[in-house]
Write a structure and sequence with these properties.
By secondary structure, the chain is an all-alpha fold. Helices cover 86% and strands 0% of the residues. It contains four helices and no strands. Helix 2 packs antiparallel against helix 4. The longest helix has 22 residues. The chain starts with a helix and ends with a helix.
Length: 73
Amino acid sequence: MFIKKYLKWISTFLVLVGILLTNLNIYPLNIYFHGLGVVGWTVAGFLAKDKAIMTNFGLQIPLFLVGIYSVVF
């Protein structure tokens, strides 16, 4: 419970920073922050057995991997 609570708040912060960086057009840093937040929320959803959260955030992971791939290669 303790870990899930802080994981959710940290992940929320990372997602919001990623959105802010996107709005400020700070690329590719926005992908990294938002992506880490998405992974955190996916883990929190898994720990809570919340399929809606896992679906929402889990399906975003491949999208961020495409973005990271395009930055690296």
